[in-house]
Amino acid sequence: MKNPSTSTGLVIAVIAAATFGTSGALVKPLLEAGWSPAAAVTIRALVGGVVLMPVAAYSLRGRWSALWRARWRVLAMAAVGVAGTQLAYFGAIQRIPVGTGILIEYMAPLLLVASVWAISRRRPKPAVLIGSAVALIGLVLVVSPTGAGGVDALGIILALIAMVGCALYYVVAARPSDGLPAVAFAGFGLLLGGMLLGAVGLTGLVPFTLTFTDVSMFGAQSPWWLPLVVVGVVSTAVAYAASISASEILGSRLASFVGLLEVVAATFYAWLLLGEQLTPAQLAGGVLILLGIGFVRSDRPAASSRRLARKSMTMMRASGPATGYPTSGPVRMTSASSASRSGQCW
C-alpha cells in the first residue's frame, strides 16, 4: 500500500488546526455561564471519544489485537496528550495571563527541534533554524502576550509542563501505528483521557463546576448541551483524529509546526464569531507562522531523497550477484519508512 504523500499530510494537518481552533469560540459560552475549564474539557473529551467509538470499533473489526499491542501508546495519549497537558495549561492560566500561557505551551515545536539537536548532537539545517525563529516571532505577534498580572513562578512552571506535554503529544501521535487506525487511537485516547480528567476533577484538585442553564451562543440563547456537542464532534473528535493521522504522515516536527496554525485559527474564529479584535500585527504573525512552516517543510525533500536512496541500495543488495551485491546479512527494507513516519528522521 502506497504511503500518503507529505502534501496529503499537510492538508490533513491544516484541517486538524482549523477544527482545533474552533474550541475557544465554542467553549467560551460555557465558561461565561459558570462552567469551570476542567469540567468543559472533561465533557469535551468524553463526547469526542463516544462519537468516535462506532467508527473506531468498525475500523478494528477482526484486528482488536492491534489495540492491545498499542495499549501503552493509547495510555500515553490519554494521560499526556489529553489529560495532563490540559490540566497543566488551565492551572497555568489561573496564575499567569492567557497569552503568556499559550505562548509558552506552543513553543513545543522548538522544544522538539532542540531535543533532537541535543540527542543526536547534529545541528538542524539552516532552513529548520530559520523556520523556527520566524514561526516563533509570528506566534508572539498572534498571541500578543502582556505582562499584566506579574510573573508567578508556579504558573510559569505549569505552562512549561504544558509545553512538554504538547511536544510529547506529537511524539506519541507520530509513532508507528502497528496496525492501529488513527481513528481508533484517537477515540480510545479521548475516552480514557476524559475519564482521567473526570477522576482528577472529583478529587477536588482543580475546580470542577457544571451548570445546566441556557447559554448565550453567538448572540442567541442556546441549550447548554449544544456547544458541548459541537465542540465534542468538530473540535475534538474530528480534530484529534485528523491531527494523529497527520502526525503519522509528517512526523512530530513538521506536524507540530503546522499545529501552530491552531492559534491563528482560534484568533480568526474569535474575530468572526465573537467579535473580538483582529489587529494587523496578528495578521502579520499568521503570515510569519506560514513562512516558518514553509522553511521547516523545505527540509523534508532532502530527507525523502536519502530514504529513497537507502531503500534503492537495499533492494539492489537483495537482488544478489546479478547486480554485484552480496545477499548475506539481514535486509530491512521498511526501517527507513518506519523511522520517517514516527518522526525519527529529522
UniProtKB/TrEMBL annotation:
InterPro entries: AA-Vitamin_Transporters, EamA_dom, EmrE-like. Residues 8-143, 154-296 form the EamA domain. It is found in: Membrane. One of its GO terms (cellular component) is membrane. It is a multi-pass membrane protein. It comes from the Bacteria. Residues 318-346 are annotated as: Disordered. The keyword Transmembrane helix applies. Keywords: Membrane, Transmembrane, Transmembrane helix. SUPFAM superfamilies: Multidrug resistance efflux transporter EmrE (SSF103481). It holds the Pfam family EamA. The chain crosses the membrane at residues 41-60, 72-92, 98-120, 127-147, 153-172, 184-212, 224-242, 254-274, 280-298. Residues 334-346 have a biased composition (Polar residues). PANTHER family: EAMA DOMAIN-CONTAINING PROTEIN (PTHR32322:SF2), INNER MEMBRANE TRANSPORTER (PTHR32322). Belongs to the EamA transporter family. This is EamA/RhaT family transporter. It comes from Subtercola vilae. The lineage of its organism: Bacteria, Bacillati, Actinomycetota, Actinomycetes, Micrococcales.
